[in-house]
Amino acid sequence: MKKISLRHMAKNQHGTITAVKVAGDLGRRIRDMGLIKGTEITIQGRAPLNDPVALRIRGNTLTLRNNEADYIEVEVDE
Amino acid sequence: MSKITLALTGNPNAGKTTLFNALTGARQHVGNYPGVTVERKEGAYEKDGFEAVIVDLPGTYSLTAYSEEEVVARNFLANEKPAVVINIVDAANLERNLYLTCQLLELKIPLIVALNMVDVAKDRGMDIDVEKLSLFLGVPVFPIVARSGRGVDDLMLAAGDMAAGRIAPPDMGKLKISYGDDIDQTLLSMTDMIRERNLLDKKYPSRWIAVKIVENDEILIQEVRAADSDLADRLLQEAEKVADHLLKTFDTYPEALIADHRYGFIKGILKRGIITHHYDENRLYTSDHIDKVLTNRFAGPLIMLAVLFSIYQITFSLSALPVTGVETVFNWLAAAVDGLLADGPLKSMLISGVINGVGGVLGFVPLIMLMFFCIAILEDSGYLARVAFMMDRIFRVFGLHGSSVMAFIVSGGIAGGCAVPGVMATRTLRSPKERMATLLTVPFMNCGAKLPILALLIGAFFARHKALYMFAFTILSWIIALVAAKVLRMTVLRGTPTPFVMELPPYRFPTFKGLMIHTWERSWQYIKKAGTVILMISIILWAMMTYPGLNPEQKASFMKERARVAALYEPGSKVSEKRLLAIDNREKALTLQNSIAGKIGVAMEKVTWLSGFEWRTNIALLGGFAAKEVVVSTLGTAYSMGETDPEASGSLGVRLARDPAWSPLVALSALLFMMFYAPCFVTVVCIARESGSWNWALFSVLYSTTFAFILSTVVFQVGRLLGF
């Protein structure tokens, strides 16, 4: 097990969020959309220009920019 | 007794609008909330003697102060105290949807949960125990399928019973979500302080106020401060204390902890056998397989371009016949009036002012309806969110947001929108700077009112490649708007970007009813504009173009010329008719040149010759500031006045193509100017309202007109040098 930022996850990689390290509007928005500690996510894919990233969360799809994914720390299998 | 108010609330894409349409049908009214420009949708509901006004609140994920929508929704619930609040929850996305439900519960409002799309959830192998869910949430829960109407009657029956007091509203007092010992302790003491002073007790439950303050909700804190500034200070002190403590001991923020506990509460409920998955939760559904193609790195952008281009083809080819039909009707009307009335100011006003003006605008209604219909399909199917997803990287380069796409598309990014709703669509953008940049540049897009001008001039001068030119001009409007946005973001609007995080909702087949309501709403706005503002402007312009008329000497001179023709040629002969007609034309041209509008137009020629515009074009451009549709009708009025020969009265396009003052180069220069000069007056008013300042509105008018004039001058002058 190791912790990486969501930005560095590969397509189809699976992991569990361990921390969302941002306050303010961005933090609030991220949490409102269900990205909180303990949530399991899978990278679904990336936009044609590699950014934003789309991810599966509880059977649904969310998308966020790479520089927003930076604040989300995920625990992934090696 | 005043009518009962029901409010619909829920996440975006949870099926709120579908339910609203199903309940109210065509009996809808769209307006705005005071002070902000979030759409307020209201409709009448009536069944079995239960009458209610249903308010469709904006879709939100939460009730924080993240966006204007959220603030509007929560203010409505707190201030207008609807008799019943129906919370639409997507059964297939229960966990996230219940996040909003939790917050509604804390507001202690009479809540009913409508568990929507239970059919989709079932297909996904999910079983939901509705009774248990209702028990644990402490509110009635009704499974429904809004699209087909299944379960909706039962839902409304319960809503009616609750509104009439036949069933007691759920007791919200007992429900308390725990936020952990530290926060709970603070909330307890804050709640006591709030109760002691009866702070805002008419609006909010005391614990809710405490939670919001701990969450650092700026808007509520302002409200508290205005009500009781001394108490506000003390409450904030408490909140700060717990925030400091949490940061030191757990390295976390109160807001984060509160969100964690809300989700924890939801998970706790769902775990108690409410939801059973028969398949792997994360397996891929049809929608995801579609996405694999539609957002594919290579195929995605190509398909997107193809989709956008095909919208042009469909709209233009299918609308050709009805457009001709409407034109025929108005031509017939003009001919009828011509035959019925004697020559004079009334007839002139009816034909030149009313029929030509309104007819010119209504002629494009079929085209605009088709265009709106196509956009509605993209919107309702969920494809527009994918467009935002694919476009964001590009938009960010120009200092904008992926969601700016919506505003640009609504404004006419797919030609045929309108800058007014486009400017309003910028409300979903949070950062004031990105929003301002979008606001100031969306009027560059080819809105539905510019389409007639484009269609007219392209049809007259570049008829062979109609679709290609339309497409090229749309792409050009995008380029100009984006570059302008970047320039604004680097100069007057510097600043950091806004969160992008958004949902890619599953693809859904749009409902026919939804599409029709969507299309009709927007088309009706356009038609109403034609019937009211444009009719008025058309008449004013007719008067400006008719009065003061010729002076007696000029009139006498034309009479003399006519007498000479009568003396020289046999009356009624071809030569005689031709000569008389030429005199008529000159007289009418002189009348127009002599009129108020003519004088302004002529005066403007001193500047506009640089870009190749003669005074008649100038008059039309002046009219276009009132509403872009007026450009075509004014050109029509201006040119039909100089011509009475029924043989030559083809369409306005044919007349322009024959006119010596016009050429393809002039048409190009005029097209560019008309696309990019000042937005119409309605848009300018909206910009002023959205930006909160008339200075920005004025700025918008000045910078775009200056830019358009420079652009068209350069094109015209360079084109002339090259010999076009």
- Total number of β-strand segments of chain A? 6
The portion of residues forming beta strands of chain A comes to 35-45%
**In one word, what is the shape of chain A?**
globular
Assign a percent range to the helix content of chain B.
55-70%
The computed structural class of chain B is alpha/beta
What integer is the average pLDDT of chain A? 91
Stretches of chain B where pLDDT is under 50 for at least 5 consecutive residues are: 641-650
Indicate the mean pLDDT of chain B.
85
Biggest interface, residues from each chain: A-B, 38 and 45 residues
* CA-CA gap between termini of chain B: 73 Å
State which percent range the strand residues of chain B make up: 5-15%
Give a written overview of the molecule.
The complex is a heterodimer of chains A (78) and B (724). Chain A is α+β, with helices and mostly antiparallel strands and 78 residues long. Chain A has one domain: Ferrous iron transport protein A (FeoA) (SH3 type barrels, Roll), CATH 2.30.30.90. Chain A is 17% helix and 42% strand. Chain A has helices spanning 24-32, 66-69, and strands at residues 2-5, 14-20, 40-46, 53-57, 60-64, 72-76. In chain A, strands 1-6-2-3-4-5 form a six-stranded antiparallel sheet. The termini of chain A are close together. The mean pLDDT of chain A is 91. In chain B, the strands form two sheets. A seven-stranded mixed sheet of chain B has the order 2-3-4-1-5-6-8, with helices on both faces. A two-stranded antiparallel ribbon of chain B has the order 7-9. In chain B, α7 (181-196) packs across α8 and α13 runs antiparallel to α14 (345-362). The longest helix of chain B is centred in the middle third of the chain and has 42 residues, at 299-340. Chain B is elongated and about 105 Å long. Classes of the chains: A alpha+beta (78), B alpha/beta (724). β5 (60-64) of chain A pairs antiparallel with β10 of chain B.
